[in-house]
Write a structure and sequence with these properties.
Radius of gyration: 23 Å
Oligomer: single chain
Helix content: 25-40%
Strand content: 15-25%
Shape: globular
Structural class: alpha/beta
Length: 383
């Protein structure tokens, strides 16, 4: 319907047509601007971009392009880009000097993302204490089934939009149920990109690659981008399905070469020297009864620099957030905490080290509910 309206308007020469989308470059050298309305997958509303324009502006996959377009000529199917006016929100002449994402210098995260929003949002307060997240973090939420990971992701997304409006938020749902996609779109203010479980694995991987390339292009311009991925396990499964068999099969039926691309996806998260960062917070599924899922988690276990471990035993007793505080943590957390905060967090960890996850969480929740903020809670602790 939108395509027909735009086509009808284009027949009026007094009106200049404009269009925008995210660039996908095909092997033949030309490309298309894909629409976020179709989750960056091919559609009738795509805009053709010629190889000459791609070379002229040194366009890359994932660039967000805005410009004037023309209607399809006879025997043509797509609108075509006439002139690029803005690329990633910048003047096209400026972007020729940008540095490729892979050549940017990665650093440890030093700027903390504050998740605490309100007194009653205790899950975000626990997250800030147990596993602080910085700009450029490569975070894994390790989750058995029915432990509240989806709700946790929604709360993280809403905390980011409330506390850090300068960050660009992208929620990526792979192999999820359609009703969960709708729920996420209604609950979260950021952009939600999805490929549901009834789509083929090729679409899962294409959507994920378009999302990560878009994020990289934004980081090249100094933006802080945050991707929430649910789930990394299902993305790895999709790559395993489409991967040509190498003849080397790991335990659980995982091809030896299948995990290279999902590792590159997660590995893209980094804090950039002189500005910009890409933060990826991804869920990894465990205790699903699938040996493949366990192998995938073990392969990714050492690649992240923050882990938040959810515990099924807490969820079974309806204790939320079902976080195992003792197993959860962030590497180089001293770069994110103020020295006085860090000292108090160490005391907290020493106090709960010998407790079970259930007792530790009940103790912490009881103390947090008596205070209005984490700062007040830490100040109330005795040395």
């Amino acid at each position: 319907m939108v395509f027909e309206i735009v086509k009808a308007k284009s027949e009026r020469p007094d009106e200049l047509l404009v269009g925008e989308g995210v660039l996908e470059i095909l092997p033949d050298g030309f490309g298309f601007l894909r629409s976020p309305n179709y989750h960056y997958l091919p559609s009738a509303e795509d805009i053709y971009v010629s190889p000459a324009q791609i070379r002229r502006f040194d366009l890359r996959k994932g660039d967000s392009v805005y410009g004037s377009i023309r209607s399809p000529k006879e025997k043509e199917k797509y609108f075509a880009l006439l002139k690029a006016e803005r690329i990633n929100g910048k003047d096209p002449e400026i972007i020729k000097d940008r540095v490729l994402f892979e050549n940017l210098t990665p650093l440890f995260p030093t700027q903390r993302l504050i998740m605490e929003t309100a007194k009653e949002k205790v899950d975000m307060r626990v997250l800030d204490l147990a596993s602080p997240i910085g700009k450029g973090q490569r975070a894994l939420i390790v989750a058995p089934p029915k432990t509240g990971k989806t709700v946790l992701l929604q709360h993280i997304a809403n905390a980011i939009t409330a506390n850090h409006p300068e960050c660009i938020l992208l929620v990526l749902l792979i192999d999820e149920r359609p009703e969960e996609v709708t729920d996420m779109q209604r609950m979260v203010k950021g952009e939600v990109v999805s490929s549901t479980f009834d789509e083929p694995p090729e679409r899962h991987t294409q959507v994920a690659e378009m999302a990560i390339e878009k994020a990289k292009r934004l980081v090249e311009f100094g933006h802080d981008v945050i991707i929430l991925l649910d789930s990394l396990t299902r993305l790895a499964r999709a790559y395993n399905t489409i991967q040509p068999h190498s003849g080397k099969i790991l335990t659980g039926g995982v091809d030896a070469n299948a995990l290279h691309k999902p590792k590159r996806f997660l590995g893209a998260a980094r804090n950039i020297e002189h500005g910009g960062s890409l933060t990826i917070i991804a869920t990894a599924l465990i205790e699903t009864g699938s040996k493949m899922d366990e192998v995938i988690y073990e392969e990714f276990k050492g690649t992240g620099n923050m882990e938040l471990v959810l515990d099924r035993r807490l969820a079974d007793r309806r204790v939320y957030p079902a976080i195992d505080i003792i197993k959860s943590g962030t590497r180089k957390e001293e770069l994110l905490f103020h020295p006085h905060e860090l000292e108090k967090v160490y005391i907290l960890r020493q106090g709960i080290a010998d407790l079970t996850p259930l007792d530790a969480m009940n103790l912490l929740l009881g103390r947090l509910k008596k205070t209005s903020s984490n700062a007040e809670f830490l100040l109330s602790m005795k040395d």
